[in-house]
UniProtKB/TrEMBL annotation:
Stored Pfam families: DUF3253
InterPro entries xref list: DUF3253, WH-like_DNA-bd_sf, WH_DNA-bd_sf
Domain of life, source organism: Bacteria
Protein name: DUF3253 domain-containing protein
Amino acid sequence: MSEPVIRAEILAQAESRGAEKSLCPSEVARALKPEEWRSLMTRVRREAIVLAREGRIEILRKGKPVDPEAEIRGVIRLRIRP
C-alpha cells in the first residue's frame, strides 16, 4: 500500500463527511485492508500528519485541533479543513 493511496483514502473519506464530521483513522485502514487493517494504522496516522502539515485536514484530539508539528499520541480523529 503506497503513501499516495493512503492519503487519497483519507481525503476521500474526510471530504465525503464534510467539515462538520470527523472520522477515525481505523476507518481508513479498514477500507484499504479489511482483513489486516491493524497493520496499516501507523502508516495511516503518519500520512494524516503529512496531510495536516499541508493544511488539507485537521487532526482532532478530544474534539479540538492539535498541532501536527507536536507529538500526537492517543485517540485521534480526522476531518477535512473547512
